[in-house]
Write a structure and sequence with these properties.
The protein is mainly beta. 2% of the residues lie in helices and 61% in strands.
Length: 439
Amino acid sequence: GRYGVRFPLYDKDSSLLYFSFYTADGYKPARVRTADLRPTPPVYRRFRLADSLVKQENWSLPLTPDSTFATRRYSPFTHLLNLHSWGPMAADLNDMEFDLGAVVYSQNKLSTLSFVAGYALKSGYDHGAWMLNATYSGWWPVIGIQLESGRYDYNAIESATHLSTNTSERLYLRHRAHRSSADLTVHLPLNLSARQYNRTLQPYVRYKIEGIHAQRPDQIYLLREENNVAWLYPAERKDYRIDISKRYYQLMEYGINFNNQTRTTEQEINPRWGQNLSVGYTHAISGNIRLGSQWWADGRLYFPAITHNHSLSLYGGFQQMSDKTRNFDNKILYPRGITLPGYEIATTRNTYRFPLWFPDRHIGSLLYFKSIDAGLFYDFGSSRNLFRQTTYSSYGMELTTDTHFFRLTYPIHIGFRTGYETQSHQPFFDLIFSIGLSI
C-alpha cells in the first residue's frame, strides 16, 4: 500500500497474509501469499538540513552508556505541576466545550493531574471569566475542581419602598454584578466496551457553591400586571429604597451518562448505530435565596441512512425547574439559532449528514483536507414561563470540513451553519468549530 498496511493476520493453514491498506475511501482488506513476498531493502532518504548540521558541527552520536544523570527517587507530589503550553483557547474535554481566551495548560509526567487556567469568554458571563479547571486521575474515582469568576448581568423582580409614599412596590431590575463559583465533582468512569461497540457508563456527584456579588441596579422599571399581562414603566433609582443583599447558594447535582455506539471508520461521519443518554437532578441545600430544584433528561440516537457513510441523528431533551423561575444553568441543547427562556423546556434536533467529497489533499505542511460534509436539519422547541407557553422551530443546512493544521494529529472540524427561525421569521448564520479527540 502507498500509505503502508495495518492489522496483519497470518493464516498458517493457507499460507496467506491478510491485512488492510489505507485509501482516501478508508481501509480496504487485502491478502497475499507468503510465497509471493520478497524482501526489499529499506530506502533511506537524505535529510539535507540534518546532514548539513552534522557536517558543520562534526558531531556523531556515541552509543555508550550515559551516566550524566544520576538515578534518584521520583516524587509524584513535587511533580504535580508541569506547564507545557499556552494558547488563545480554553478546552474543557469533560463537557466538550471550547472557548476563546488566554490560558495556560499543565499536565504532569504521570498524567494524573491536568489543568487549564486563565481568562476565557465563557457562556453565562457577559465579558468572560477568570477560570481554573483541574482534574486529578491518580485515584479512582476521578476528582475535578472548577473555579470561575466574572461579570454577570441579570434581571430580577424585587420589592422596594417608594420614598415619597412609603408604599411597597414591585420593581423589575436589570443588575450589573459579578458571579463567582466553585464546584467539586467526583465521577466513576466505567469502560464497558465489547466487540464492535464503544460503551461507557459514568455516574457522578457534584457539589457547587456560587455567589452573586457587587450588584448595582442599571435599569429600573415599575411592574404592573393587568389581565395576566405584565407592563413595565420606567422608574428612577432615587425614588426607591432598594435593599440589595449578596446572593449565594449551594447546590448538589447527581447524574449519570451512558454512551453506546459502534466503532467508526475514517470515512464515517457518525457511528452507524449509537445511543447517548443522560439524566440528572440538581437541588439547593442552603443559601439566602430560594432556588427549588431542577431535573433533566436528554438523549441522541444514531441510525444508518440512505447509503454508505450517510447518517441520521435524532436528539430529544427536557428540563424543568420546580420554582417556576430560571434559577439554574441550561442542561439540554437548544434548537439551532434559538435561545429558549422559561422554566420548562423541551427540544428536538433532527439532522441528516452526508459526505460531499474526500479530497485527501494538502497545502504543503500548512493544511490537510480530509473530507467535506454537508448536513440538513430541522429543530423544534417548546418553552413555558409564568405567563404562557411558546413553541419555536428552525431549519437550515451546515457545511463543514475535517482538516489538520501544521500536520497535527488531532482533526479540526470547521464550517458554517445557516438557517431560518420561524418564530421571529429571521435568518441566522453561525460558525462551527470543534476539535476531535481521536487520532
